[in-house]
Amino acid sequence: MDEENIDFPDNSVDLLVSSLVLHWVNDLPGVFDKIMKCLKPDGAFLACVFGGDTLMELRQALQLAESERCGGISPHISPFTRVRDIGGLLTASGFTLQTVDVDSITVWYPSMWEVMRDVRALGEGNAAHTRPLRLHKHVQFAAASIYREMYGKELPDRKMWGVPATYQIINFLGWKPDPSQPQPKERGTGQVSLKDLHKINDIIDDPKIVKLREDDMK
């Protein structure tokens, strides 16, 4: 399926799942709007994307090396979405009951060269039309030295010297609104103040505050 040209009929899908592809989309707000339209009421959108801290070590090493050797920098890795942007996109498209969670995974490599090999294998190089077509060898060697100097460490359990690469995964879930979904109470209707939560046992035992039904006692 082409993520930028979702053509499901309106209100026809119960669940839409996307895994690690949405960072390639040019118009994320438009895609979120299309997903909202094709979902049935109370339908769910479940997805994960690479977050902005992905490959931050490689990105920084390349920028420092290129700035030193060439007097300027160019992007060599795909741009990734920030955590705060995901929540904003879900809200702007009308999703409710949102959940956003982040996993940060660190993978250790012998050197920067193995990191770059995996980046190419994943297809995560910069695909922008205006990107530089090559990265000079002297910049690559400088970046490898910077990477090792800034982030390298000895790994006694593996009996090797290694460098880390961070992969940040943003997992998120949003629901299309439906009357059957839980709704927040009106402001001011609460009977318990949050500052009294340390008294929760006393509050629960007070029948004037918490009225228990017979089913609650089972």
From TrEMBL:
Zinc is among the record's keywords: no
InterPro entries per the record? Answer: Malonyl-ACP_OMT, Methyltransf_11, SAM-dependent_MTases_sf
| GO BP: any one term | methylation
- Keyword Coiled coil recorded: no
**This protein's GO CC annotations:** mitochondrion
Ranges for the Methyltransferase type domain? 2-46
A GO molecular function held by the record: S-adenosylmethionine-dependent methyltransferase activity
Q: Name one Pfam family in it.
A: Methyltransf_11
For this UniProt record, the keywords arranged alphabetically read as follows:
Methyltransferase, Transferase
Q: Which PANTHER family match?
A: ARGININE-HYDROXYLASE NDUFAF5, MITOCHONDRIAL
**Protein's name in the database:** Arginine-hydroxylase NDUFAF5, mitochondrial
